Amino acid sequence: MTALLVKDWKLLKGQRQFFMVIIGLAAFYAIFMNETAMSFVVTYIAIMMAMFTLSTISYDEYNNGAAFLFTLPIERREYVLEKYVFAAIVTGVSSAVGLGVCCGIGFARGYFASAGDVVEVAVSGLVGGVVVVCLLLALMIPLQLKFGVEKSRMVWIGGIMVVAVLGFGGAKLAQLLDVDVKGIIGVLGQVSPVVAGAVLFVILAVGVAVSCVISVKIVEKKEF
Amino acid sequence: MKIIINHSSMQPIYEQIVGQMKAQILKGEIKEDTMLPSVRMLAKEQRISALTVKKAYDTLEAEGFITTVHGKGSFVAPTNRQMRLEERRKEVEAAFELAIRKGKSCGMSKEELTDVFQMILEEM
Amino acid sequence: MLKLRNVKKKYKDFELDCSMEVRPGMITGFVGKNGAGKTTTLKAALGLIRPDGGEVELFGKPAAVLGKAGRTRLGVVLADSGFCGYLTIRDLLPSLERMYPKFDRAAFLEKCNRFHLSDNKKIKDFSTGMRQKLHVLFALSHDARLLILDEPTAGMDVLGRDEILDMFREYMEEKEDRAMLVSSHIAGDLESLCDDIYMINDGHIIFHEETDALLGDYALLKMTREQYQKLDKSHVLRFREENYGYSCLTDQKAFYMDNYPDVTVENNGIDTLITMMIRGERV
Q: Most buried residue, A92, A104, A176, C263, by CB count within 10 Å?
């Protein structure tokens, strides 16, 4: 697995310009916007790094390269797991660095009245990043492995439309059946943050695990 | 050891190798107990199949020109008068064969060929 | 080393049913026209596609149990795939060292240098011939016991090709138990390199012979119509009508040279053989 991680790291280093642009944008947000932008910057960096992990898959598949890759001493399962591990490492490290820098800027500008403020920015930034990144990767890695770059984008757009239609339809249905949606949301709001966090964590963990299993199945079935 | 292969010759490559090696052994150009190049090595040098070389070595071994020690390689065997005579005889035979073939291809009968043979023999 | 037993694969308009064997110490050639099934066969041997039936055996065991350790003993060149184009040779080195315990970095770089393969240029910017050279050099760099090479000399000029073929011969000479399966559409490459040759057509092996016999015993007989009528055809594999009469492929040229001195006997290479085996008619 380390061989693959090293390979993806080299790919990442090969895309320096791309990361310069991201860092530039992140710096722009961090410097010129107010404190609410802080958590956004962290999430933004995490998402960009997650997207990069996805593009390593298309780099691997460029010019039918995956066929050769799987003649090397690499298990297919190992290849899939490495993508998840690589994503975890790069998004984790980059958002931690991003957070550190943002907090530094925040302090310098005197945004933080108390230690609590720092924690609030950090937590909201990180939680936002983790949730979005986990969902994005859990959905996109299997799609990308199954359909490739072009098609997976189509499937992704199609998927969003389906979700939107379902959401809209659900709301309509709730209206028709006279379900008290606002009441349910109100109840959810009263749940303690610890419990909510735990539930969220479990949902994400299960989601990523399922995605991982599906991805392994997809790649093991694939022919090159 | 010098071997030159003619790829456009009608003579099979392994026979060319056998012929040239025999000649060099009989003339004493390759000394007794000399180690021959490995099958793969000769195949590489001559850009021919290893099986061709193996066939040549097997033939040479069967005729007593070389011995192969498993795991060590092939070595030139001692030659004796008998072998040298045998080889000469074969050369003469081949020369006759060629002459007869030529005669047949221009329509000479068995009797005519024998006559020519007798005539030359008596002239000498 | 490698054994395929009735390996089957069905596509819409193509069906593969192939058996072949590569023995230790042997260089086995694999010929056929484009689309005859060479790449499909090699991919089945490598586990890149799943056969619908039959068995693949590598190093004496079913290919399915080969595992990572087994695959370090394989050297592979594919016709239509290779290293990730977005990396440079230098980028690849640390990964290759981790994957192959016997990877010889210094020798590999030295050879890349000899073939003018820049180690800091992205591989996708190489020409086809250069890319193929890189893959060949890599396949020879980690002490693989079995080389499976699909069109390894594709896109190379004559000189480059000769140099690569010499490297194959050297590699085989270094250790006796190495073996090699190499496909090519260039017959000359195979004639001077391989010990035996398989020919595939329409997904089926139609011919297997040792190169030695092929160059020594096979020939093309050319004759007039009258000569053809009188010919003993028991050693004629295929014949074809020509404007001068007939041409026949035989695997016993000595027989015809001895018995039919008037018939023209022509030494023929693999190219003629392929044409005759595919286009010629059976007697």
A: C263
CB contact under 8 Å between B12 and C216, yes or no, is yes
**What is the number of domains present in chain B?**
2
Mutate to test the interface with C, among A59, A71, A81 (most CBs of C within 10 A): A71
Q: Give Cα C234 to chain centroid, integer Å.
A: 30
- Asked whether residue B5 is assigned to any structural domain, the reply reads no
Task: Please answer whether residues C40 and C79 qualify as being in contact, where contact means their C-beta atoms are separated by less than 8 angstroms.
Answer: no
Strand order from edge to edge, sheet including C2-11 = C61-62, C53-58, C2-11, C14-22, C204-210, C196-201, C27-31, C179-183, C146-150, C74-77
Give the separation between CA C178 and CA C180, rounded to whole angstroms. 7
Is residue C166 scored above 90 in pLDDT?
yes
Phi, psi of C31 (to 5 degrees): -120, 165
Report yes or no: A155 and A147 within 8 Å, Cβ to Cβ: yes
Same domain, B87 and B118: yes
Taking only Cα atoms into account, the Rg of chain C, rounded to an integer number of angstroms, comes to 21
Q: pLDDT-based confidence at C99, cuts 50/70/90?
A: very high
- Chain A residues in contact with C81 by the CB 8 A cut-off are 63-68, 224
- Residue B19 and residue B46 in one domain: yes
Considering the domain architecture, whether residues B92 and B46 belong to the same structural domain is answered as no
Residue B118 CA, distance from chain mean position: 28
Q: Domain residues for B33?
A: 13-76
User: For the whole model, what pTM was predicted?
Assistant: 0.84
* Cβ pair C59, C73 in contact under 8 A: yes
CA distance C99 to C70: 12
The domain that holds B63 is classified in CATH as: 1.10.10.10
B21 and B49 inside one domain: yes
A66: closest chain C residue by CA? C81
CB A207 within 8 A of CB A134: yes
Which helix (H) or strand (E) segment is A198 a member of? helix A193-221
Residue B65 lies in a domain: yes
Chain position carrying tokens 């299960």: A206
Residues in chain A, how many? 224
Provide the shortest C-alpha distance from residue B42 to chain C (in Å). Answer: 9
Q: What are phi and psi of C32, to 5 degrees?
A: 160, 160
Tokens standing for residue A125: 């930034």
Choose the CATH number for C2-212 among 3.40.50.300, 1.20.272.10, 3.60.21.10, 3.40.50.150.
3.40.50.300
Is B7 within a domain? no
DSSP, res A62: G
> What would the pLDDT profile of C207-258 be if each residue is shown by its tens digit?
999 998 888 889 999 999 999 999 999 999 999 999 999 999 999 998 998 8
CA C115 from centre of chain: 23
**Domain's final residue, options B42, B59, B76:** B76
In a domain, B2, yes or no: no
Q: Which two tokens stand for residue B118?
A: 């007798």
CA distance A30 to chain C (A): 32
